[in-house]
Amino acid sequence: MSAPSAVTPPFDPGDPLGIDDCLDPEDLAVRDTVRAWAADRVLPHIAEWYERGELPGVRELARELGALGALGMSLEGYGCAGASAVSYGLACLELEAADSGIRSLVSVQGSLAMYAIHRYGSEEQKRRWLPAMATGEIIGCFGLTEPDHGSDPAGMRAHARRDGSDWLLTGRKMWITNGSVAGVAVVWARTDEGVRGFLVPAGTPGFSAPEITHKWSLRASVTSELVLDDVRLPADAVLPEAKGLRGPLSCLSHARYGIVWGAMGAARTCFETALRYAGTREQFGRPIGGFQLTQAKLADMALELHKGILLALHLGRRMDAGRLLAEQVSFGKLNNVREAIEICRTARTVLGANGISLEYPVMRHATNLESVLTYEGTVEMHQLVLGKALTGLDAFR
What we know:
Residues 25-137 form the Acyl-CoA dehydrogenase/oxidase N-terminal domain. This protein is an alpha+beta fold. It is built from 11 helices and 9 strands. The protein folds into 3 domains: 19-134, Butyryl-Coa Dehydrogenase, subunit A, domain 1 (Orthogonal Bundle), CATH 1.10.540.10; 140-237, Butyryl-CoA Dehydrogenase, subunit A, domain 2; 246-391, Butyryl-CoA Dehydrogenase, subunit A, domain 3 (Up-down Bundle). Helix 7 runs antiparallel to helix 8 (292-320) and helix 9 packs antiparallel against helix 10 (362-374). It is globular and about 80 Å long. The chain starts with 24 loop residues before the first helix and ends in a 6-residue tail after the last helix.
């Protein structure tokens, strides 16, 4: 006789594929901790922050995120949590379920600024910066994009030249998350030796970071320009192990992985909002969730949401195994952000006119995702990455 089978749990609309069964207890604990923090510290205020176009108390929020172990979460040593890639991804999902700007704060801090120092910095640089960045006492930013060079960083105009044993750094960087509140900027510039990374402390003469305003997306996020006018830096300001574009591009790949998860957080919030709304909003004498067209929308949103989470989990397992390829990250970023935007737009139609109100989170997430869609690689760039990987032919030029 065969052994009796376990009792099959009932269908769970919040986890229709039973993905939670695939997660380790540590992963679930991280997810639940970050979700609880976001519910307490972000959700009660985020609509007001978004409407005002500011992120008040960003330094305090950074310290709280540091206390959670969310900054540089997947890095080892120097006060970092050393968590799995899956745990980090789940944290990104929960943060972006609150707001993309909060997830961006964490991504830029950990996956760009801290990751660049951790992977390419000297031991002295790591000890100087990483412990304080892990606690949130120091915020970092990452300067690669320029006013005229986004998708083509090889054309950057920022440059550094030697002056005795020092470096003189000149240029401008644009759309830099955390820039105005950062204690240190990782800035990439052309040199006679190729592209190099420089650590620029806030307050260095010639360096400023004016905040960018008048945004209709990522409004609850600090976005800045970096201005560098003959900034004098000592020789030990250079990241010694980063030479060429491979350095900054590897950092971007690490950050894009977090976006693969984060986009599904925004999508989940919009789907759950639409599902609840459909159960209570009545038209023609009954809840709109009882109409076939609304159910079709909800079913399609659930399909793409949980397929996206499965894709993120698969990529996380590959990262933890040391087998994740940059092309696979492009696969995830392209699919998940694109599908997340479609979920948000569909959720907006379920809510009707209420969908444009900040009383609900749907339009806020939809407009945020318009930035997520194009930063750290536009749709077209990721399509071309995959196109080259599939055909072996480079169509970038």
